[in-house]
Amino acid sequence: MLTTLLSLPTVMAFDVDPAGNLLVGYDESGIRQIHLVGADGAWRALTALDDTARAARFVPESRLVVVEHDSGGDERGQLSLLDLDDSSGVLSPLTHDLAYFHHLVDAKPGRVFFTTNRRNEVDFDLVMLDLASGDETTLYDGGGYLSSAQVSPDEHWAVVALAGGPGNSVQLLLVDVASKTVTALTGYDDPTYHEGASWLPDSSGFVVASDAGRDRLALRRYDVGTASWTDLLVDDKHDLAGWVCPDGEHLLVGTTDDGVVSMALHKLADASYVAQLDLPIGGCAARLIIAPDPLWSADGSYALLNHSSPIDPLSVFRYTRETGDIVAVQTPVSFELPQGPRHPESHRVTSFDGEQIPVFVYRPVDGSGDGSAVVWVHGGPEMMAMRIWNPVVTALTAEGHTVIVPNVRGSAAYGKRWYSLDDKELRLDSVKDLAAIHDWLPSIEVDPQRTALWGGSYGGYMVLAGLAFQPERWAAGVDVVGIASLVTFLENTSSYRRVAREREYGVLAVDRAFLEEASPLNRVDDIRAPLFVIHGANDPRVPLSEAEQIVEALSKRDVPCQLLVYPDEGHGLAKRANRLDAYPQAFAFLREHLSS
Fold it and tell me: What digits encode the pLDDT tens for the residues 66-93?
């Protein structure tokens, strides 16, 4: 079952041109490549890279495509041009410097916009490249980590999202492309988050999701001419996101509700409801993290939505605005989903201080199971577990395990208050949430003595912290690209990451004592559960040394542990061949240590 599930292809839409041609990422080969899907439905492979294609955009009014790709999972994106009239598929270097990051922002007629940290490795600049002359114009070099940028339709403006001072905060800046003047639209020290600015067709303003002045993400509108903000759509119980239709009259609105993102069409003028989109239930059509947000066609007649659910691998749907019809974009290779994937149950678990932890429970495929369980902790920490396709979780249920997927404090999508409850000195409160979940397990007919932790990135830290701070509770752990020491992680991570991460975990120069206290490596003598560790050698976020030092420390203490290192991977396993090597071994490890 695991091999079958890991081999199912996924597809995501990156761009659409006025003629209806699509650029999609498709991984049927085992590595995501860029494909062209014609308006007639015909597929054509555009790339055959050794590594994952990260993004692609059409260059309007040309036959060129910009492709972002990296090397060995190092995330150092390089930009190349591909000529659709050249059948050889050769990529021509556009911005290549393997020591630095180049992230594709947008492509306009004759120009490409990207962000890069090549100036000093730490700060990201916004750059405009003229394709005819090769000249570059730096539009923003004011410092900081730029998480995104959106260029207005008339190319007069760019709205930039900059990592702010408080944890999970984002500052918005408005850049005048011609004069390169920068206006701060929100404060750097404001404890607010902003996501997904979407420009109005006439470039007079934009709509953005923002939790300024409230707990949940609401849709707010910024008017450039008057420099004023207005609330467009507010829901005090749910996070909202929005995408302006090029017709200037409509707005797609995504509503997040306990891990599900549903979509509806609204009027732009007053945000009044028009119609619900009839997508497969129980999944997400936005906020997927792994795939782009919805894409409108140039005339606004249809939108492309990347959709995933616990029973549906990532795929693309075409929504026609006039009729409301939703049709899946067909892939060149058809496949049949094996029996087994199920939607999870939703629960709330009371933690040590009375807080209610949102939890998804995936039951064993056969409905019974053997009483064993795996608690799967997401990364971030300010990310969230969503109801999306996860072949490993599904395969774990096929093994007979119950899988518990929590959104412990610090997770997004449950309000600003919730995602702030683990900041800095509150870090270990999120680990206490794991203990509360463990105590709750008998209520869902799970044997707490046969329960393991599994997590990646920050989730890997949570695995190690659970084993170190609660050694009597957990039977085993699977740590994927996890943090063993918050101190050595901050010391050794990429320079640009350190600045962004210190605002969440604590500043080395100020908070070192607490960072030491909260580091599992410093409690290694208490760990007694066996550990399975997976890491990519080229990880730019959590360096391989984090895995090596925890495995070395446990080996000296005769605690069973195993480390798998993949030389062509970074922050996780992107290549199917590596997943097919690593995960069966991890499953065998759990089979051994969770057996009755």
Answer: 999 999 999 999 999 999 999 888 999 9
pLDDT value of position 495: 86
Residues 198 and 301: their CA atoms lie apart, in Å, by 17
* pLDDT for 543: 96
Tokens of 548: 């090596």
Collect the ranges in the chain with pLDDT lower than 70. Answer: 368
Burial 480-501, CB ≥16 within 10 A → b, else e: bbbbbbbbbbbeebbebbbbbb
Q: 331 with 28: CB under 8 angstroms?
A: yes
Place of tokens 């630095």: 100
Using CA atoms, how far apart are residues 299 and 303, in angstroms rounded to an integer? 10
Q: Which of 469, 434, 431 is nearest to 448 (CA)?
A: 434
Q: How many whole angstroms separate alpha carbon 460 and alpha carbon 376?
A: 10
Helix ranges, 403-485 (H): 416-419, 427-440, 458-469
User: Both tokens of residue 518?
Assistant: 């909260």
Residues pairing with 199 in the sheet: 206
Report the distance separating Cα 413 and Cα 411, nearest Å.
Answer: 7
Distance between CA 14 and CA 11 in Å, rounded? 10
What's the per-residue H, E or C state across 59-107?
A: CCCCCEEEEEECCCCCCCCEEEEEECCCCCCCEEEEECCCCCCEEEEEE
Q: How is residue 501 written in tokens?
A: 């991460």
Contact 78, 544 (CB under 8 A): no
- Report strand pairing: 476-480 vs 531-536: parallel
Q: CA-CA-CA-CA torsion for 164, 170, 174, 178, nearest 10 degrees?
A: 70
Hey, is 292 helix, strand or coil?
coil
- DSSP E strands: which ranges in 131-188? 136-140, 146-151, 157-163, 170-176, 182-184
Please report, in angstroms and rounded to a whole number, the separation of the first and last CA atoms in the chain: 22
Nearest-angstrom CA–CA distance, 312 and 291: 14
Number of alpha carbons in the 13 Å side-chain half-sphere of residue 577: 10
SS3 375: strand
Beta pairing, strands 451-456 & 476-480: parallel
**Structure tokens, 520:** 């599992």
Strand-pair partners of 151: 158
Record the tokens describing residue 264, joined without a space: 């509806």
* Whole-Å CA distances, 423 to 26, 192, 502: 37, 14, 10
Give the separation between CA 360 and CA 404, rounded to whole angstroms.
Answer: 6
β-pairing, 53-58 with 157-163?
Answer: unpaired
Global pTM value: 0.95
| pLDDT tens digits, one per residue of 2-52 | 999 999 999 999 999 999 999 999 999 999 999 999 999 999 999 999 999
Residues pairing with 78 in the sheet: 69
Task: Specify which residues 95 forms β-bridges with.
Answer: 79
Q: What are the φ/ψ torsions at residue 413 (nearest 5 degrees)?
A: 80, 5
Q: Which helix (DSSP H) or strand (DSSP E) does residue 207 occupy?
A: strand 205-210
